[in-house]
Amino acid sequence: MEPSTDPNNSNNAVANPNVHHHCMDMEAEITAPEVHKVVAPPPRTTLQKLKSRLKETFFPDDPLRQFEGQPRGKRFILGAQYVFPILQWGPHYSLQLFKSDIVAGLTIASLAIPQVSSSIACVPETDPIPASGSTKFR
After folding, report:
1. What is the pLDDT of residue 13?
2. Looking at the predicted structure, is the pLDDT value of residue 93 above 90?
3. Which of 68, 52, 48 is nearest to 60 (CA)?
4. CA torsion 129→135→137→138, rounded to 10°?
5. According to DSSP H, which parts of the chain are helical?
6. CA–CA separation, 101 vs 111, rounded Å?
7. φ, ψ for residue 81 (rounded to 5)?
8. Domain spans in the chain, listed from the N-terminal domain onward
9. Alpha-carbon distance 98 to 105, whole Å?
10. Which pLDDT belongs to residue 38?
11. Whose CB among 13, 39, 94, 125 lies 3.0–4.6 Å from 136's, allowing a Cys bridge?
12. If DSSP states are collapsed to H, E and C, what string results for 4-39?
């Protein structure tokens, strides 16, 4: 069966350009994927790799960045706050925060103490000489 050339026939997309068919829309939307060339990173020595890994392990967020460009007095204060964090948040600590911390501490204690005491009850009594290997059960 050949397509009709009647412009009023909705089955003929060629004769009626206002009629959109799902299959034709799908074909129009399909485009070739974009290709991006990925450049390999520059080669690094073993020492550079080790230094990078150690820095990421011990200083993942680079805490020393805050010291750059600061005067000596400010660097001392920042260093003291880094070693003793209470110097940073302590001046802003309030009674309301203390009350919240008490509630949080009691909540954790109410969960942790029964767990510890139940695990202690399951531990067998051991001989004071660890090498003897003898165990006494209650």
Report:
1. 47
2. yes
3. 52
4. -10
5. 22-29, 46-58, 72-83, 86-89, 95-121
6. 16
7. -70, -30
8. 93-121
9. 10
10. 86
11. 125
12. CCCCCCCCCCCCCCCCCCHHHHHHHHCCCCCCCCCC
Q: Letter for the amino acid at 111?
A: L
**Biggest CA pair distance of the chain:** 103
CA 5 centroid distance within chain: 62
- Predicted local distance difference test score (pLDDT) of residue 91: 92
Q: Residue 120: is its pLDDT beyond 90?
A: no
**Cα–Cα distance measured from residue 54 to residue 73, given in angstroms and rounded to the nearest whole number:** 29
Q: Which pLDDT tens digit goes with each residue over 45-58?
A: 999 999 988 888 88
Query: How far, in Å, CA of 77 to CA of 64, rounded?
Result: 13
Q: Distance of alpha carbon 83 from its chain centroid, rounded?
A: 24
Tokens of 67: 């010291």
Instruction: Kindly give, in sequence order, each residue whose CB lies less than 8 Å from that of residue 136, ignoring residues fewer than 6 positions away.
Output: 124, 125, 126, 127
Residues 76-91 pLDDT 10s? 888 888 889 999 999 9
What DSSP character marks residue 50? H
As a whole number of angstroms, the distance between CA 42 and CA 100 comes to 52
Question: What's the full length of the chain, in residues?
Answer: 138
